[in-house]
Amino acid sequence: MGIYILSFVVAFVVALMATPAAKKLAYKIGAIDIPKDKRRVHKKPVPLIGGLAIYLGTILSILLFLPKSQTNLGIIVGSTIIVVLGIFDDKYELKARVKLLGQLVASLVVVLSGVRIDWLTNPFGDGMINIGVFAIPLSVFWIVGITNAMNLIDGLDGLAAGIASISSGSLFVVSLLNGRYATALITVAVTGAALGFLPYNFNPAKIFMGDTGAMFLGFILSAVSIQGAVKSAAAIAIAVPILALGVPVFDTAFAIIRRIANKKPIMEADKGHLHHRLLALGLSQRQAVFVMYGVSLFLGLSAILISSTNGAKGYIILIIAILAILWGADKMGLYGHKAKNMNV
């Protein structure tokens, strides 16, 4: 356990110390978030690229404590591509297709290094299901999807960093349960780095992680979740990373459903995300963030419980979690009729 503590501490301290430097760099290169529309919660310009500190803390910890391997190198290179892409986006506001192209390249680097979903546990019997030629496209879809989902929830001070900390902490426990010790080390490093950045990012934020940080966190967590959760022996292993990363996954899913129901383009931004709905109910930024932390913790614990059990208990936990998610989404108007009536 000592190596995990060291990994956490190194990532935490590096991110904590590097964030002020990232803030200075943001002002120097002009990577500043200036609120231009009503969707923005903040009213004053705030420096971006704080995610660079999270990246440095995580990668340095990986380099110090993980053995050199093709898979680990692929994760480092892919993450670096994503961070460079994020810095350019925070500075120049890249077009969506350019960002997507960069995400695809980074994802392919990781997938071709060996991080991919080659098989799934058969939930209806013994053995595994080999997905064959669908392994690469499915793995790329998962990584790109989570990368963008994490970016979408980065809408309140401290939200994405806190959610990423809880998600990576949950994946850390799942990885240990499944004997995936390399993955456990990466996830504990992500947890430390995200928490090291959080003091500067919590409301009122002195710096934002920007696309640099949100895409990096989504990217690396989606990649390691394949190794540490999807490839586990749990009967419904595929549900584990979905729940561990549940807040960005389900918030994005409901956004797609909502926009289809309201006959709006899927890629069109709106104010119907969970954090927008919580603010509309009169909660402060901090209160809304803590509520979403609670949701993430519930989903993370559900993922851990499913990963640690087999048979009927796992399915019962999954059903309860899904019912709770659907009930909460309906009450908050996250999809369909209520979202339309709320003019989002």
* Poorly predicted runs of 5 or more residues: 339-344
Rg calc: 19 Å
Termini separation (Å)?
Answer: 47 Å
Biggest sheet, spatial arrangement of strands: 1-2
What's the number of domains?
Answer: 1
Let me know the average pLDDT: 87
Number of β-strand runs: 4
**What percent of residues adopt helix (DSSP H or I)?**
55-70%
Order of helices and strands: HEEHHHEEHHHHHHHHHH
Sheet/helix structural class: mainly alpha
Q: What is the oligomeric state here?
A: single chain
Specify the number of helices.
14
What's the shape? globular
Quick one: biggest sheet?
2 strands, antiparallel
* Beta strand %: under 5%
Subcellular location: Cell membrane
Transmembrane segments: 6-26, 46-66, 72-88, 100-121, 127-146, 158-177, 183-202, 214-230, 236-257, 288-306, 312-329
Keywords: Cell membrane, Membrane, Transferase, Transmembrane, Transmembrane helix
Membrane topology: Multi-pass membrane protein
